[in-house]
Amino acid sequence: MSEHNNLNILIVEDNKAFTDLICLLLQEMGFKKIFTADNYKSGLKVFETNPPDLCLVDIDLGKDEKTGIHLVEKIRETAAALPVIYLTSNYSEDYYEQCRHTRPSSFMNKELSRFKLFHAIDLALLQINSAETTIVHTLAPPPLITHNNFFFKIGDVYKSIPVQEVSYFFADNKLNYAKVGQRSFPTTVQLKTIESEFHPAFLRIHKSYLVNVKLITDIRPGESTLQINGETLPIGYAYKKTFFDQIPLLK
């Protein structure tokens, strides 16, 4: 790994003792340009002033309201291919689902050793030259949109779904889906993009829901809910007035 020893490495970890241990192990490996931060704000500042070639980011940044996931999301806006290794003392399936969309190189628990750190970094650095190509192939393409149909990618096939059959779009754990009957079709298209394209046929009722107005079966203003596709969806307070202003309610 000696050819990479001049690379900048950013460590974002709120536990100083653990940060010191990582720095020591990195120095033993020959790395000299090591930068550290202990929260979202300082991590972002170091990232901007000393652009890293590799990041090791703690998922849980202690008392900071913003997590390491938030930091990597921000980093991805300008560094889509930057290798990132997540650090966590409580790796779980839930953490994996929360982090997956940020495309980490790997996860490493805090039972650290030089051997584990060496191999995690070595594998991450192998992605530097091929990361951009890899990302292009691993991101799910957005559905093709026409005035009458959505074309969702299912495996190697684009499945045509008539617009009028989509009950609603919803966001769940950083991913977006279209609800058609009992099935949910994933999409990388943002809700605001679909909203602007299909307004007023689809209206936003909540930060996480965009509904097909024609398929609403009833609205309950007192409960701030509506029924669609046999399901009850919430009407968010911030969207309530705008939504009702666009619905012809007969009193």
Question: Any chance you could write out the topology, listing elements then pairs?
Answer:
Blueprint (H helix, E strand, L loop, with lengths): L8 E4 L3 H14 L4 E4 L2 H10 L4 E5 L9 H9 L7 E5 L4 H7 L6 E4 L4 H12 L5 H8 L5 E2 L3 E6 L2 E6 L5 E5 L2 E6 L2 E5 L3 H8 L3 E5 L2 E4 L3 E5 L4 E4 L2 E4 L2 H9 L6
Parallel strand pairs: 1-2, 1-3, 3-4, 4-5
Antiparallel strand pairs: 6-7, 7-8, 9-10, 9-13, 10-11, 12-13, 14-15, 15-16
Helix pairs in contact: 2-3
Quick take:
The protein is an alpha/beta fold.
Can you walk through the features of this model?
With 251 residues, the protein is α/β, with parallel strands linked by helices. The chain folds into two domains: 2-137, Rossmann fold; 144-245, OB fold (Dihydrolipoamide Acetyltransferase, E2P) (Beta Barrel), CATH 2.40.50.1020. 31% of the residues lie in helices and 29% in strands. It has eight helices and 16 strands. It has a five-stranded parallel beta sheet with strand order 2-1-3-4-5, sandwiched between helices. A five-stranded antiparallel beta sheet has the order 11-10-9-13-12. Strand 3, helix 3 and strand 4 form a beta-alpha-beta unit. The radius of gyration is 23 Å and the shape is elongated. The N and C termini lie far apart (73 Å).
